[in-house]
């Protein structure tokens, strides 16, 4: 019996057609990321940062639209990963290098490249593990969250007008930290819990409205604070689980 080559299955799937709606959102994410690169090259760093954040919104919508409409496909998964590498890997890397890392010379562009390659590794690992890990948790920092942290950092410094030296050093440390977290085994909440779409207490609606109001009032500060808390949630959650495990082992031995 002969075995059909995997490429034949892919060609057959493409002949059947692709789903338009979720792939349009993915294309919107790719366009926003590409325009972020163009803006960074032209020196419009805060514009580039905003377009990276816009790209993350499109990226979140394409997956939700595909799941809600039952239009998930292998083509969409591959296209989404390629778009993510451009929008959340290359775009933030170029933005960080042009905005703050260029004075470091070789160390600066190597830091930017490390961010890109760790983002690519993170995407590859996600595609391999997508059917074998818990859907409510990501293994390693998601690359859209890392890119959003980079963008919010640019917006915060643009808003505060911080000193150049502090900006450059802090960004260099941030890039290495984000690169490490993307390839780490820290677990991050995925916000894919179906319970989130069900009825919630009235207080949750009030809290959400207050949060939106605060974000609109001070978007640069609030975006930075929200993404920073999310990034720290992985290491903090690991330490909490480690402390609980240690306490449980001590109680069992006693």
From TrEMBL:
The chain crosses the membrane at residues 20-38, 107-126, 138-157, 169-189, 201-216, 222-240. Pfam families: CDP-OH_P_transf (PF01066). It catalyses: a CDP-1,2-diacyl-sn-glycerol + L-serine = a 1,2-diacyl-sn-glycero-3-phospho-L-serine + CMP + H(+). Keywords: Lipid biosynthesis, Lipid metabolism, Membrane, Phospholipid biosynthesis, Phospholipid metabolism, Transferase, Transmembrane, Transmembrane helix. It is found in: Endomembrane system. One of its GO terms (biological process) is phospholipid biosynthetic process. Its main location: membrane. It is a multi-pass membrane protein. InterPro entries: CDP-alcohol_PTase-I (IPR050324), CDP-diaglyc--ser_O-PTrfase (IPR004533), CDP-OH_P_trans (IPR000462), CDP-OH_PTrfase_TM_dom (IPR043130), CDP_ALCOHOL_P_TRANSF_CS (IPR048254). Its EC number is 2.7.8.8. Coiled coil: none annotated. GO terms for molecular function: CDP-diacylglycerol-serine O-phosphatidyltransferase activity. GO terms for cellular component: endomembrane system; membrane. It comes from the Bacteria. PANTHER family: CDP-DIACYLGLYCEROL--GLYCEROL-3-PHOSPHATE 3-PHOSPHATIDYLTRANSFERASE-RELATED, CDP-DIACYLGLYCEROL--SERINE O-PHOSPHATIDYLTRANSFERASE. Belongs to the CDP-alcohol phosphatidyltransferase class-I family. This is CDP-diacylglycerol--serine O-phosphatidyltransferase. It comes from Desulfuromonas soudanensis.
């Amino acid at each position: 019996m002969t075995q059909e080559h995997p490429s034949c299955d892919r060609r057959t799937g493409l002949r059947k057609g692709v789903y338009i709606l979720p792939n349009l959102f993915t294309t919107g994410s790719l366009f926003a990321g590409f325009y972020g690169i163009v803006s960074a090259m032209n020196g419009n760093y805060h514009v580039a940062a905003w377009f990276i954040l816009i790209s993350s919104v499109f990226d979140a919508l394409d997956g939700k639209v595909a799941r809600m409409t039952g239009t998930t496909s292998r083509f969409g998964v591959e296209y989404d990963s390629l778009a993510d590498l451009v929008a959340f890997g290359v775009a933030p890397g170029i933005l960080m290098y042009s905005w703050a890392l260029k004075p470091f010379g070789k160390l600066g562009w190597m830091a930017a490249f490390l961010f890109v390659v760790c983002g690519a590794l993170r995407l590859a690992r996600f595609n391999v593990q997508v059917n074998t890990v818990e859907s409510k948790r990501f293994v390693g920092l998601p690359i859209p969250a890392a890119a959003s942290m980079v963008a919010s950092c640019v917006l915060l410094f643009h808003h505060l007008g911080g000193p150049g030296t502090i900006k450059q050093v802090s960004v260099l440390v941030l890039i290495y930290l984000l690169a490490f977290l993307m390839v780490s085994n820290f677990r991050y909440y995925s916000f894919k819990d179906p319970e989130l779409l069900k009825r919630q207490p009235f207080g949750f609606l009030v809290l959400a409205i207050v949060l939106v109001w605060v974000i609109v009032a001070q978007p640069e500060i609030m975006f930075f604070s929200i993404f920073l808390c999310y990034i720290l949630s992985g290491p903090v959650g690991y330490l909490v689980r480690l402390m609980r495990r240690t306490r449980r082992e001590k109680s069992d031995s006693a």
